[in-house]
């Protein structure tokens, strides 16, 4: 990630929260294969595990799953089998997961109320927030291994509970709906679908963040951007103004 100091977000708690707020990450691998492209990406919702939520130094561990039929799954399994590594082993190659806030927008030079009228030396840009997690991926690919079943069972239950309660708001409190649970589906059906996926666990070794929100501009232009997004209206405009 290209990081200018003024845009860099170094607070791990803030970056961990961005991941939890927008858990659909883009998993990217670069693994040589005779049958599939070297660079592959998949959109995957992740669960972020952190042992100490008060920690300012712990990046955390990401848990997710991929369809077994996905070429990216086939590539990682192929790589582990070629290295004669058992189920639950780590890939040798580093992986990256990109998380992006949906709060993003084009910034018109018309917002630069300090510089534009004086010199005209302004150009448009795009404001956004994102985090990139790098690390080693542990793959659970053998459906007959109890370790795979245990990992996937916990992962899909935790992910479903998080999405139901935190994304949908179905927590059963104050008259709200209760959460749908994996156990609400037939056990044999769940077991069958579980065999069609593989598990991935990523120990984050490096977590980088970028909040590009016009911080590099002078005070007048920054205020102009805030005012401009406020006048833009709509949820995106209001959200960008707050951010």
From TrEMBL:
InterPro entries: Split_barrel_FMN-bd, TR_PAI2-type. It comes from Neocucurbitaria cava. It comes from the Eukaryota. This is Transcriptional regulator.
């Amino acid at each position: 990630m290209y990081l200018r100091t003024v845009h860099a977000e170094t607070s791990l708690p803030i970056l961990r929260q961005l991941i939890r707020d927008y858990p659909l990450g883009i998993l990217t691998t670069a693994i040589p294969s005779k049958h599939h492209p070297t660079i592959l990406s998949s959109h995957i919702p992740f669960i972020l595990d952190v042992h100490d939520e008060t920690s300012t130094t712990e990046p955390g561990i990401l848990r997710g799953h991929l369809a077994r039929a996905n070429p990216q799954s086939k590539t990682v399994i192929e790589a582990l089998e070629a290295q004669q590594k058992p189920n639950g082993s780590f890939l040798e190659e580093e992986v990256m997961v990109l998380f992006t806030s949906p709060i993003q927008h084009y910034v018109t030079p018309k917002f630069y109320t300090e510089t534009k009228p004086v010199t005209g030396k302004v150009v448009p840009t795009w404001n956004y927030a994102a985090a990139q997690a790098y690390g080693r991926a542990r793959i659970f690919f053998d459906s007959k291994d109890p370790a795979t079943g245990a990992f996937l069972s916990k992962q899909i239950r935790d992910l479903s509970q998080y999405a139901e309660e935190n994304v949908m708001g179905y927590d059963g409190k104050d008259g709200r709906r209760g959460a749908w649970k994996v156990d609400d589906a037939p056990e044999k059906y769940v077991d069958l679908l579980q065999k069609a996926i593989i598990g991935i666990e990523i120990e984050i070794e490096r977590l980088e963040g970028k909040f590009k929100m016009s911080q590099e501009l002078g005070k007048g232009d920054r205020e102009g951007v805030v005012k401009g997004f406020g006048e833009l209206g709509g949820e995106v405009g209001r959200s960008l103004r707050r951010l």
